[in-house]
Amino acid sequence: MTDCIFCKIINGEIPSAKVYEDDEVYAFLDITQVTKGHTLVIPKKHVKNIFEYDSDLACSIFSRIPKIANAIQDSLPGVKGMNILNNNGEIAYQSVFHSHIHLIPRYQTEEGFKLSFTDNSKSYTNDEFQQLAASIKKTIESVS
Q1: Is the pLDDT of residue 1 over 70?
Q2: Catalytic residues
Q3: Phi-psi region of 131 (alpha: psi -120 to 50; beta: other; left: phi over 0)
């Protein structure tokens, strides 16, 4: 895609701090550096988000995540954990519309990054909860 910043990075039109590359995957330091070592892992094939992945692309991308995550942890002293994030769609805070996975090393509890979820478990009866699961399961089985 000609106007995609990540495609331009892959093609060498825009400089990046590359940490990994192979035929299908490119990984580089995120310019924002939420924490030291914050890395983006992207497919070389332009896909907007996870909804455009097929199983082969998913395998290619996600199979590289442990290698890159371990390299980040092993090369940066003090990494105690890591957030692995993938935002899909504007409503989910995706800002660059070329799929990318954030690897955000965590060093301490308070470091300018917080992720929290609201507990909505009381909003569902057990029957509603099981019906929700059944609906998703049925859809999965119909596309398999």
Answers
A1: no
A2: 100
A3: alpha
